[in-house]
Write a structure and sequence with these properties.
heterodimer; A: 219 residues; mainly alpha; MetI-like fold; 8 helices; 83% helix; flat; B: 246 residues; alpha/beta; Rossmann fold; 6-stranded mixed beta sheet; 4-stranded antiparallel beta sheet; 24% strand
Chain lengths: 219, 246
């Protein structure tokens, strides 16, 4: 490997890294919000909305992100809505992630035994107090590992953004290889930057899991 | 004397199956009523109907003359006055022992934290668990959890306490520590309705024994009378299952 080539590539990879991180985390934030709303709809069995959510979840969990991005990026302009590649990336990742987050959060909510509800009600709590003080904190604790796994998965999924010409890490690496044939250096930097992006998330995830799970499950 | 709790013509069905049939009952202040009967006779369902955890098909449950029925507007208000302890340890696992005791008083009764903590510590001390106030439920034994569950119910200062087979899931040695707490409550003249399979405990604590069979109260008698000379052949057969002879 040529040290000089690597040095000259680093700024390009740095820009790509920042773009990837930005779109990745905006997408994840959208996914999380969407997941909470949809999981609540499923948990409270809100008529009609419940069916819509189920269709959405199944549709987005069972199609690849690449296909979803193509639909948004090339499909929307066909019906007169044009959005930038960046917005497309955020929305695409958010919709895919939302379907996964919905299932993680819903399973946490449904894992709480009925007796918890009954004992809270028998203490005179209203449904609102029950949900806020008893169900939600426990459900969150149970959901955390799933949510962390989703975050890592979604950050890695950003690698298909290159298909809609977003200059993310993958795009940059492929571009440089095509231009200069420095395959080794480009791939080396690609791996390094992905690790830099994901390792802290993974470590933070483990830390949070330990922290929130202590109360209910111990060490 | 006006009864604290009154049940009139209560009927309860699960689909076509009649669980409770024409239950009539009134419980005076300070009275300890023990309900016995074989599994599936409707004992637990009766308790659950009393605080509105189950819909009823017919009849009324009255607490201090006010109706407690699912759907009625004052249901949460009535539930405050009816404490319930369940068979499975139902503490909130994400809260410490102390937090378990003060959650409802603070959220439901809007009492100050300071005052709630003070009362909780007194009650925890009384059941011998003051030193465990910062533990989480998973760190306690079954018997300790049940004692905390009793404290949690007492914190609401209920007029009636319902115990639904609270020792059924406990080791024999832990049964004792929980039943001692309940005996202590009887001495304080608490009004209680207790479902149990512990016959010697029932004999010791009850002012009145109700024997349920097939969803009906078929005996309502003095404990001494019930255990020595039950009126019905069904109750006699039931009591015999607790005796062993070689």
């Amino acid at each position: 490997m040529d040290q000089e080539v690597i040095n000259s590539y680093i700024p390009l990879f740095k820009d790509a890294f920042l773009l990837t991180v930005k779109i990745g985390w905006l997408g994840i934030a959208l996914a999380f919000l969407l997941g909470i709303v949809c999981a609540f709809i499923l948990y409270f069995k809100i008529p009609v909305a419940k069916t819509v959510v189920r269709c959405y979840v199944e549709l987005f969990r069972n199609t690849p992100l690449l296909v979803q991005l193509f639909f948004i990026y090339y499909g929307l302009p066909a019906v007169g809505i044009s959005i930038s590649a960046e917005v497309c990336g955020v929305v695409g990742l958010g919709l895919l992630g939302g379907s996964y987050m919905t299932e993680s959060i819903r399973s946490g909510l449904e894992a709480i035994p009925v007796i918890q509800t009954e004992s809270a009600l028998s203490l005179g709590m209203t449904n609102g107090q029950l949900f806020k003080n008893v169900i939600l904190p426990q459900a969150f604790t149970i959901s955390v590992p799933g949510i962390v796994a989703n975050v890592i998965f979604l950050l890695k999924e950003t690698s298909v953004f290159s298909a809609i010409s977003l200059m993310d890490l993958m795009f940059t690496a492929k571009d440089l290889i095509g231009l200069y044939y420095n395959t080794m250096e480009s791939l080396f930097l690609l791996v390094i930057f992905y690790v830099i992006m994901l390792l802290p998330v993974s470590l933070a995830g483990t830390f949070i899991e330990k922290k929130v799970r202590f109360k209910m499950f111990g060490d | 004397m006006e009864p604290v709790l009154k049940i009139e013509h209560l009927n309860k069905k699960f689909d076509d199956f009649t669980v409770l049939e024409d239950i009539n009952l009134s419980i005076a202040k300070g009275e300890v009523v023990v309900i016995v009967g074989s599994s599936g006779c409707g004992k637990s369902t009766l308790l659950r109907c009393i605080n509105g955890l189950e819909d009823i098909n017919d009849g009324r449950v009255l607490l201090d003359g006010e109706t407690v029925n699912p759907g009625s507007r004052n249901l949460t208000k009535s539930r405050e006055k009816i404490g319930m302890v369940f068979q499975s340890y139902d503490l909130f696992p994400h809260k410490t022992i102390l937090e378990n005791a003060i959650l409802a008083p603070m959220k439901v009764q809007k009492r100050s934290r300071k005052e709630a903590v003070e009362e909780a510590m007194q009650l925890l001390d009384r059941v011998g668990l003051a030193s465990r106030k910062d533990s989480y439920p998973r760190q306690l034994s079954g018997g300790q959890k049940q004692r905390v569950a009793i404290v949690r119910a007492l914190m609401m200062n209920p007029e009636v306490l319902l115990f639904d087979e609270v020792t059924a899931a406990l080791d024999p040695e832990m049964v004792r520590e929980v039943l001692d707490v309940i005996l202590d409550l009887a001495k304080q003249k608490r009004t209680m309705l207790i479902v149990t399979h512990e016959m010697s405990f029932a004999k010791a604590i009850a002012d009145r024994i109700l024997f349920l069979d097939g969803g009906r109260i078929i005996e309502d008698s003095d404990p001494k009378e019930f255990f020595t000379s039950p009126k019905t052949e069904r109750a006699e057969r039931f009591l015999r299952t607790f005796e062993y002879e070689k």
